[in-house]
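INFO batch 0412 | record 1 of 1 | parsing
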Amino acid sequence: MRSAKDFFRPLAVGAPAPVREVPFRPSRMIHFFDPGNEKMAAKVPALAPQVDVLLGNLEDAVPADRKEAARAGLVRVARATDFGATQLWTRVNSLDSPWVLDDLVTLVTEVGDKLDVIMVPKVEGAQDIHYVDRLLAQLEAKAGIGRPILVHAILETATGVGCVEEIAGASPRMQGISLGPADLAASRRMKTTRVGGGHPGYLVREDPRGDAPRATYQQDLWHYTIARMVDACAAHGILPYYGPFGDITDVTACEDQFRNAFLLGCVGAWSLHPVQIAIAKRVFSPDPQDVAWARRVIEAMGDGTGAVMIDGRMQDDATYKQCRVVAELADALAARDPELAEAYAAAEKGVKSGNGGVR
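INFO prediction complete | emitting tokens
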């Protein structure tokens, strides 16, 4: 068994030292683009300030005969663009494909200084992460990269879900995990052709009341998997994400699905179309009234011990910790988003003057 101390030693001579804590950077939306599509690539400079993460996609959405063009396009975009505070990620091809080795070698050696995270599809166990971990260390050493490129796994198979805890803890490079509902549905033989979201056939029905009509309530197909993924990520200090919501036109259901994921602990989701950027930004940013209430509780609790009553509600060390999660996320987002910072400040002022409270 590998010693725990070994996790903090570079896996190749000359590679950068592994990170000891995953840096939290706002990543409410991971916005996908096809770098081989010239029209889409041309929009990247204008799009970058609008999103937290831009991801050059090399995998499923790119046909086999355009893989090399997409890879070359991402190199051009990375070299030509000043991303500012926006992170640049890529989703490489799956580890069982003939393209992934060239993806990793080309991107790390040519634009590794620009890449923050490499997303690996269809991860099924720690062995997949170990392979990528060692290879990245060798390539970073070869290219003279000064900081490690982080790794993000996609949960897309039943085997991967069964091994999610070992995946989350497989390497110091692990930045987070995303749910990949479409491939996971196929792996599980689920009877849905939707990409994320619920299904009208997956429901509960209220008990009979004479001859009165019985109401039905649609359920969330992904609740168990998201909750398990969130627990695995939290246990290993990495970040969980909801993946894609495929129905671009159904913005209401998209917002509902994103909000469910946010409430369960996810920090962001994928956006496949510009219309989903605003949804993710809104949903994965704590509401200003909730932030103001959280700050009020933190102020009243002092060192976080004991218990206090605020507006008839008991607050103790557990609620103090919950409020710290909300307030710290708000601080990180406000530092990047002036409009959000202004909204948080206004709400806090309103709570202090008695015009707002917990929702």
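INFO post-check: The mean pLDDT is 93.
INFO record closed
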